[in-house]
Design brief:
Blueprint lengths: L2 H6 L9 H13 L1 H9 L13 H17 L6 H25 L1 H19 L5 H25 L6 H8 L3
């Protein structure tokens, strides 16, 4: 193998003669100015095979917008449901991949949840602490629930009075 072939060995695709690849590389290097001249003559939008006509793009955007606006549940229920299920599957796939990439954290969380479940149901001296934590958790969940209900307009304002006005 010559010195040039040794340089190209890591990039050598299988099934292509190495001497042909070296010769092709030299030809490309010699004709590099011709390639640049051809490239300069092209419009910027035509590089790499991308041809974009502004009027074509605006027409395509208009058609896409009209198509999206016409797909509503009461006009095209099957297509709407098909898109819904496709989007749901895409989201499930993305979430499962994210969980798979964080499988150590998921495993730790499941183990911790299992230990807490076992501690909750097994009788022993620790039950007084479990009941205390359960009582505090339910109290916090109650106030968070009131806050959520209030934020959607279903609250009485009692928790706001107790938290912000009564404490002063």
């Amino acid at each position: 193998m010559s010195q040039n072939n040794a340089l190209l060995a890591p990039f050598h695709p299988p099934g292509i003669n190495m001497d042909f690849q070296v010769q092709l590389t030299y030809e490309m290097a010699e004709n590099g100015t011709d390639c640049e001249q051809r490239r300069v003559g092209m419009a910027k939008e035509q590089h790499n095979g991308n041809f974009t006509d502004p009027s074509f793009l605006s027409e395509k955007k208009r058609r896409d917008r009209e198509e999206r606006q016409s797909i509503v549940l009461w006009r095209k229920p099957l297509i709407t449901l098909q898109y819904f299920f496709m989007e749901t599957l895409i989201n499930l796939k993305e979430w499962s991949l994210k969980l798979w990439h964080r499988r150590g954290m998921v495993t730790s969380l499941l183990l911790m949840l299992g230990v807490l479940t076992v501690a909750y149901y097994i009788e022993g001296a620790h039950q007084q602490y479990v009941q205390h934590v359960e009582k505090k958790f339910l109290w916090c969940a109650y106030w968070v629930g009131l806050g959520i209900l209030s934020s959607v307009g279903l609250g009485t304002g009692l928790h706001t009075f107790l938290l912000y006005l009564q404490g002063r």
